[in-house]
Each structure stands twice: as C-alpha cells, then as structure tokens.
C-alpha cells in the first residue's frame, strides 16, 4: 500500500492539487488575513450586491431630477455589482475547483475592480466643478458629456481587465500603482476643496444653511471613505520591497486589498443613506430655467 501520510495536505493520492484556502504554501504560518478576506467577500455578496442593484434601480426609476453625478454612480454600481456577484465563483474556484479558465475570469473581475476608482474620481471631479466652479458647471450640465466620459472609462477598463486576465497580474502592476496614487490624490484634493469652499461660504455666520450643511456632511463622509479604502494601498506601495514574502503576500496585501474591496458596498450605502436628501443639494442639480444659486 502506498504511504500517503507524507503527501502535502493539498495533494491527494491521485495527484489532484486541491487549492489552499490561504493561496500559498508559505502562508500556512499566517493564514488569518485570508479569514478577513473571505469575510469581506461574503459581506459584499450578502449586502453589496443588493445595495448596488437598489442604487441602479433608484437612479433609473426616479421621476424627480437628480444629481448630475448619477451617471457615474450608476456605472460604478454596475461595476461593483458584477464584482460582488463573482464571489460564489471565486470562492468555489479558490477552495475546490482550481480551474485555469475560472482563474482567467477572476483576474478579469479584479481588473474591473482595479479601475473602479476612475468612476469615483469622476464623481468627485463633477462635485468639485459644481461647488468650486459653478459657472463652468452651469455651462457643462449636459449628461451626454458624462455618458461619453463613462463610455471612455469603460473602454479603458475593459482593455486593462483583459490585459490583466490574459497576461497576468504583473503586466499591469505599474498601471495599477499609478492609477491608485493619482486617483487618491485627485479625490482628496477635490473633496478638501469642496469642504473649504463650503466652510468659507459661512464664514462669519452663526449657522450654516441646511442645504450646505447636508452637502458638507456628505463630502466629509465621502472623504473619510476614500481615506479608509484607498489610503492603505497608497501607503503600502513605496515599502512593498521591504517586507518578507509571508508579510507581504500572506498578511499585508491580503488585508489591504480586502479593505479596498469593501468600497464595493460602503460607497453605495452612503449613496442610499443620502437618497432622499441628495435632491436638495442645489449645487449638484441640473439647472432648469435659471442658474444654480451657489450661495443659496
């Protein structure tokens, strides 16, 4: 009888390589970050997917005039909804199948998620122009332009995702690093500028206007989400070469990118929490017959 007791735990007597739930053999000494990873995955599927569908449904069925950023929010919800829906496929493949074709699909899905900050950046820029440069915003409120920008972003997104899927993760590492760093600083700049303008508009006044107060709170919350979700990978990149293999691939990167994946749910929960109040944000509404009164 063959002695199978010395076989690695992920190899059967028939030679089938069962996937390790912690991805690498060396991660056996520190697999706990993957527990957090799988928890985030299940959380995104259970809460993130229905949340994204609800946001898409709300935007498409709303009768009242909404925010000009809704075009970008809808596309972001579609992208995040697809990423959340990939959870059962990914978990099945990671824990049991280990099929090469499904790995290609997983890399494609992660390529899509990598580019999600582009839509969030578009939202921040749209709000930045509305508040900081209202005259420019009034002259560029046509949503056809935003639809065109969204189509261009989707084209970039698909090229990136296909490249990552076919050529592998290393083929897009530098592009991803540049994207995350650029998007992070643009989003932080836009939101800090909005906060500064809103605070300056009430300088010397005892009470902030209710509309601006709601806008101010929304931007502060959005800025906090951006910092929590996207600051970790930005802070990690310059020091990646200083960590050991186990530290980088089994602990730090898994935890950091799990936090970034949480944005698939958290960003849209913020939108839902502001649904009823977003229409009162006069800076972001499309002007009808008269210009937006930024000081209202």
UniProtKB/TrEMBL annotation:
The chain crosses the membrane at residues 35-59, 71-96, 116-137, 149-170, 176-198, 219-240, 252-272. Its main location: membrane. InterPro entries: GPCR_Rhodpsn, GPCR_Rhodpsn_7TM. GO terms for molecular function: G protein-coupled receptor activity. SUPFAM superfamilies: Family A G protein-coupled receptor-like (SSF81321). GO terms for cellular component: plasma membrane. Pfam families: 7tm_1 (PF00001). It is found in: Membrane. Keywords: G-protein coupled receptor, Glycoprotein, Membrane, Receptor, Transducer, Transmembrane, Transmembrane helix. It is a multi-pass membrane protein. Residues 51-271 form the G-protein coupled receptors family 1 profile domain. GO terms for biological process: phospholipase C-activating G protein-coupled receptor signaling pathway; positive regulation of Rho protein signal transduction. This is Hydroxycarboxylic acid receptor 2-like. It comes from Ictalurus punctatus (Channel catfish).
